[in-house]
Fold this protein.
Amino acid sequence: MAVYKMIRIRVHDADRYAAFAEAASAATARHGGELLFQNERDAATRILLVRFPDAASSWAHYGDPEVQQALSTAKGSFTRDIVALEGGS
């Protein structure tokens, strides 16, 4: 069953966040995820909707070593809220 993640990101340091975003985007593709929607309200706030094929893929994305390394490097450059919903096709 598909998992949809709605992510609200507040960017505090655009340069450091950019490196994280690149790593997370590559990992999304590796784990079968698809960016369905991206809305940049302004330079500091982003809204994303990402679909993963299943919960295992979603968790694999979160635990991806490159994502975890990028999170560590970008610590403090952004804050985010993530809501994950399982269902749909």
